[in-house]
Amino acid sequence: MSAKKKPKGKRKRWFLLVLVAVLAGLFIRSDWIGRLIYPISHAESIKLYAGQYGQDPLLIAAIIRVESNFKEDAVSRKGAVGIMQIMPDTAEWILKQEKFGDLTIEKAGSRADAGIRLGTWYVSELSRQFEGNLPVVLAAYNAGPTRVRQWLNDRVWDGKEQTVRDIPYGETRHYVQRVLYYYKKYSELYEHL
Asked: Which residues of 87-112 are buried (b: 16+ CB within 10 A; e: fewer)?
């Protein structure tokens, strides 16, 4: 009698093992599952302003993912506002740099399209200032360009992705690593936005 139970138990375990393997294969190889796990909201605004300011929309999506997880009216503990978490002083400076029409700090803090426009312009400006060096641009977006220039001038950090671990601020180091991770993930999952 116990000999008859063993084959049933073995078949159940074998079936369960095959089922887990199939599901794991689907999970690992399936773009639709990846897109479910790593969605991109506000794609039209991201595409529009990334195109307008010469940025990769997937990079902007990665920054938004890390900054606010696509929550358009987010406010940080430090006072950063909106979907791209721009500090009010920075937003005020951005608004003085270019004609943004009736765009205000309040709109940037409550409307996704306004926040994406200001944040993408700022990424573009940082990219210009730091000659397109992505890890440095991301560090400057988080810690501020003055602070990052000081790190580079003092040779605390050489600005390379391979040495992100040398960024002296843990928050900024982690921020750059996370944005780069999501950027790579989005680039794998989305051919284009």
From this structure: eeebbeebbeeeebeebbbebbbbbb
